[in-house]
Request: fold
Amino acid sequence: MFEWKQCYETGISFIDDHHKRLFELAYETTNNEKNNRDIFNELLDFIKFNFAIEEDYMSEVEYAEFKGHRDHHNIFIKRLCYLKAEEFDNEEDYEKLYWEKAFHFIYSWLHNHMVSEDSKYSNIEDTI
Ligand SMILES: [Fe+2]
Reply:
């Protein structure tokens, strides 16, 4: 999980660099034995920062699907908040199940989003 793949490349170097860093951070986070909340929150902050960078870029180049793309980002953040608010039977379950669910969700969302959405603006500069 969380290994960088060629299919994630947008061809826009500063965005690719951020995406690579995001995967490194996620990899470090999942391989941290404690999965502690500070590291997890650092990962979430970086994801939000990456979304902001992407959105600024899309706005600057007047990308036609900008609003829809931004909605995808916002829905992801909301779903993570809902996941965080889910009830677990006890603290032990929370510690085990929450992280498992959260990382699985983050990985599958990022993978799908980068392959199907981020790839769409990869050739935007060729069309403007
Ligand atoms: Fe995106």
Notes: The CA atoms of residues 20 and 69 lie 20 Å apart. Residues 54, 69, 73, 113, 117-118 surround fe (ii) ion (CB under 6 Å).
